[in-house]
Amino acid sequence: MKRASVHVIFGAVALCCAAVAAYDGLRLRHAEEVNQVVAASATATAGKAAAKQAPRSAGSMDDAPQVRLARAIALSKEGAYDTAGPLFESLIREQPESDTGRAALFDLGNLYLRQGIGHSPAGAVESLAMVEEAKARYRSLLRIAPDDWDARYNLERALWLAPETRSASSAPDVKEQHDIKVRDPESRDLP
After folding, report:
1. Could you tell me if 85 and 71 are in contact, meaning their C-beta atoms sit under 8 angstroms apart?
2. pLDDT at 60
3. Domain residues of the chain, as ranges?
4. Residue 82 to residue 8: CA distance in whole angstroms
5. pLDDT tens-place string over residues 142-175
6. What is the pTM of this model?
7. Quick one: 61-164 is in which CATH superfamily?
C-alpha cells in the first residue's frame, strides 16, 4: 500500500512538471514567432525589397500588440514621430493596463519628452507643449503602476525642464492661512 501511494504521488508531480514545461514551451514558441515578425518588419523598414521576401503566414502576427509596440519604438528611434505616436496611442487605448499598454504609455511619454527637449524644429512654444504632454503620459502611467521608477525619473526630469508653479491669480485661501497650529512646548510626541 505504501509503495502504490508513493508511485501515485510521484506520477502526479511528474504530470504537473510536464504541464508547466508544456506551457513554458508554448510561451517560448510564441515569443520566437513575435521576434521573427519584429525582425522581418525591421528589415522591411530598412528596405522595400526585404519586405517582399519577409515570410507572412495566413495567421500573421503583424497585428500582435508586441509587434506593433516594437514597430512604434523603431519608428520613434528613427525620428518618425508622426507615425509612431498614433501606434502608441492605439496600443494604449486597446490595452491600457497590460504590460504592452504600460510600455506604450512610457514610450509615448519618452517620444514627447524627446521632442520637447529640443529635437523638434518648431521652437520653444511647441517644445513646452511636448514636455507637458510627456508629463501627462508619465502621470497616467504612474496612476496605473505607481512603482514604475523609470516613469518617476522621467517625470521628474520633465518637471525640471518645465516646472509647475502656482499662478499669481490663485491666492491662497484665507482660512488656510489662519489655521496655524502651534504645538504645546511640553509635547511628548515629537520624534
Report:
1. no
2. 60
3. 8-40, 61-164
4. 61
5. 999 999 999 999 999 999 888 887 655 556 566 6
6. 0.62
7. Tetratricopeptide repeat domain (1.25.40.10)
